[in-house]
Design goal:
Rossmann fold, 6 helices, 286 residues, alpha/beta
């Protein structure tokens, strides 16, 4: 008689199955009580690749990021590590699950800690790509390309989408970079009404993402900035553009000028709010 062993699902695979089981985004009419109806964080960490060099500490870095978003009160924090970040599962997540689940007044942050590669598009332009768990660095066959990420962001209904990439990923077309408010207003609520897709990459083409015994310098700076250090105008609100500006300066310093992050807005004219301060009427946003 053959004994069938029970299947043991990893926590990250369980998270993806749980996401698939969620109902499609419900109709969101009117304004939410706070700035967003729902907040999503997708955290991907790949350490022990099948055919690419390992990145020691990548999963530990990613778990720190996931915990930071939980402390910020994000409703859904989905973690995908190593084998659960295969090419097939990432394609399914980006092309099917998230476009169906994320609503039009939501915010969505995707964080990636792993390898990146470079390819040429049909016009001969260099484009970066993310390397899934089961893909090689020097081939785009199973990769997640910049074009695919842009298509994902275009299909997502979320008001604000932010990609945080701990890798040298480039080849984005950009709109005018978001800046700090000229009015210096205490509560930039109007920025939350306008759509935005923003990208922060940890390094430029040909650069290596620097790491120490404590982990990635980029992730370390990201966590510091997210805790409030990146609130550049000191108004209690932390926006994606502020965080991006902080990361560009901080990582350049900590890497001794060897690593140059980029902070871009590739669509829209708004700005994601990561930490909500006081409203212009002086009451806290819930």
């Amino acid at each position: 008689m053959m004994l069938v062993k029970p299947l043991v699902l990893s926590a990250s695979l369980f998270a993806i199955l749980s996401l698939a089981a969620l109902p499609p985004a419900e109709a969101q009419l009117g304004k939410p009580e706070g700035l967003y109806y729902k907040s999503w964080a997708i955290v991907i960490g790949i350490e022990k690749y099948v055919v690419a060099p390992s990145i020691p500490g990548a999963i530990q870095d990613a778990k720190k990021v996931a915990e930071a978003f939980r402390r910020l009160g994000f409703d859904e924090v989905i973690e995908l590590y190593d084998q659960d970040a295969s090419s097939r599962r990432l394609q399914q997540l980006l092309n099917d699950m998230l476009p169906r689940k994320v609503g039009r007044r939501d915010r969505l942050v995707l964080v990636y800690v792993g390898h990146a590669g470079v390819m040429q598009d049909s016009e001969g332009q260099d484009r970066g790509y993310l390397v899934p768990f089961d893909a090689p660095v020097n081939s785009s066959t199973k990769s997640i390309t910049v074009e695919q990420l842009k298509e994902f962001a275009r299909r997502s209904a979320s008001t604000h989408t932010l990609l945080i990439l701990d890798a040298p990923v480039f080849g984005w077309e950009t709109t005018e970079a978001p800046g700090l408010s000229l009015e210096g207003r205490m509560a930039p609520e109007s920025d939350t009404e306008r759509r935005a897709v923003q990208v922060v990459s940890a390094a430029s083409r040909g650069e290596t993402v620097s790491r120490s015994d404590q982990g990635s310098h980029f992730v370390e700076a990201f966590l510091e900035g997210l805790s409030g250090t990146a609130d550049l105008d000191g108004n209690g609100w932390l926006t994606a553009s502020e965080l991006g500006s902080y990361l560009v300066r901080q990582v350049e310093v900590t890497s001794g000028g060897l690593q140059h992050p980029s902070s871009l807005r590739i669509d829209g004219s708004g700005d994601m709010v990561l930490v909500e301060g006081k409203t212009s009427r002086g009451s806290a946003v819930k």
